Amino acid sequence: MRICVVGDELATGVGDARALGWTGRVVARTSFGRPAMVFTLAVPGETSTQLSSRWEAETGARFGLEHEVDNRLVVALGRHDVAAGLSVARSRLNLANILDVAEANRTPTFVVGPPPGTPDQGDRIAELSDAFADVASRRRVPYVDTYAPLASHEQWLADLAQNGTTYPGQAGYGLMAWLVLHTGWHSWLGVPQDE
Questions:
Q1: Are the CB atoms for 174 and 25 separated by under 8 Å?
Q2: Ranges for the SGNH hydrolase-type esterase domain (predicted)?
Q3: What is each CA distance from 112 to 5, 28, 163, in whole angstroms?
Q4: Model's pTM, two decimal places?
Q5: pLDDT of 65-80, one tens digit each?
């Protein structure tokens, strides 16, 4: 199995003293039958427009062409669409294009939505997350809402405050990993869930 995780710097765990982020924690808690190759392909500050223009070429260089290779795509959406002033309609279209191309390529896809950031962007990130969830739902693609469960979560907010940035630390990435692991991750991969 080859899994490509495409997204912004949150996909790599910026701010995590253990350098695992949510991606490393999720992979560490997943029992693959055979060793899996997991590639985190992140670009700092990236919007969904930028992501939609690069993901296919970058994953194509890592996915296997052989029939026995199970290629998987994880789209880790960040918050930069809000800061860049992209319309929700444009953000929706960008995700829709990614999912449609992945489906045409017969690549199973899993989407992780943007987590909370600064309080002044809260409503806009919530709207963006809802829009992404709708796009994924219409295409029957699993979607993990990280915004709603974390927006008022004490541990998440404490983590952001401690770091003094919009990046979580170990606790925050642990919360994101928990959400991914408990929102269809194992069934999407077809692997057993750890107890």
A1: yes
A2: 5-174
A3: 10, 17, 22
A4: 0.96
A5: 877 899 999 999 999 9
